[in-house]
């Protein structure tokens, strides 16, 4: 709420805002300009800098000001609201959902009936099959797609 405070009623917040903005907007420019006041003012006050460094510094300063302005808005999902879900319960519910989905997978594939060492062997086999499918898709599918597109005349390409 720093950008919306009255200058006279809350001077401490206004001074802190000025310090943060000068740190974020002016300090990087001062470092690259070597502390020269003329270069700093030319970079920050010139609407169209002539060099790439000046453009980058101007965009960094504008980004700092825009970020400070956007950061002043109150986010409607504040943690002190009674309707807001606490992050710990979100993690707990997410973990419960994953456990439920894994149990459903075990029941649907009848893996739940296997011994623990059989489960490891089964999951290793499934992982190897899926890994080979992913690898072959990555290696062969781009070339195969290009051949099909060239066959239908959509792309002119060398299919050798």
TrEMBL record:
Keyword Transmembrane: yes
Cellular component terms (Gene Ontology): endoplasmic reticulum membrane; serine palmitoyltransferase complex
Superkingdom of origin: Eukaryota
MF term (GO), any: serine C-palmitoyltransferase activity
Membrane topology note: Multi-pass membrane protein
Transmembrane annotation, as ranges: 15-37, 58-77, 120-141
Pathway(s) the chain acts in: Glycolipid biosynthesis; glycosylphosphatidylinositol-anchor biosynthesis; Lipid metabolism
Key words of the record: Endoplasmic reticulum, GPI-anchor biosynthesis, Lipid metabolism, Membrane, Sphingolipid metabolism, Transmembrane, Transmembrane helix
The keyword Ion transport is assigned to this record: no
A biological process term (GO) from this entry: GPI anchor biosynthetic process
Cellular localisation: Endoplasmic reticulum membrane
Family: Belongs to the SPTSS family. SPTSSA subfamily.
Protein name as annotated: Phosphatidylinositol-glycan biosynthesis class F protein
Organism: Amphibalanus amphitrite
Organism lineage string: Eukaryota, Metazoa, Ecdysozoa, Arthropoda, Crustacea
């Amino acid at each position: 709420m720093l950008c919306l405070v009255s200058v006279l009623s809350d001077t401490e917040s206004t001074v802190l805002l000025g310090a943060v903005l000068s740190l974020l907007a002016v300090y990087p420019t001062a470092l690259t300009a070597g502390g020269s006041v003329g270069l700093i003012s030319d970079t920050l006050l010139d609407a169209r800098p002539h060099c790439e460094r000046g453009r980058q510094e101007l965009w960094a300063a504008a980004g700092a000001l825009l970020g400070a302005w956007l950061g002043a808005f109150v986010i409607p999902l504040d943690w002190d609201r009674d309707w807001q879900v606490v992050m710990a319960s979100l993690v707990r519910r997410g973990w419960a959902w994953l456990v439920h989905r894994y149990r459903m997978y075990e029941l649907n594939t009848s893996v739940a009936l296997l011994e623990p060492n059989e489960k490891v062997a089964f999951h290793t086999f499934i992982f190897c099959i899926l890994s080979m499918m992913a690898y072959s898709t990555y290696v062969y599918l781009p070339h195969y797609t290009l051949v099909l597109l060239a066959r239908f005349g959509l792309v002119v390409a060398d299919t050798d």
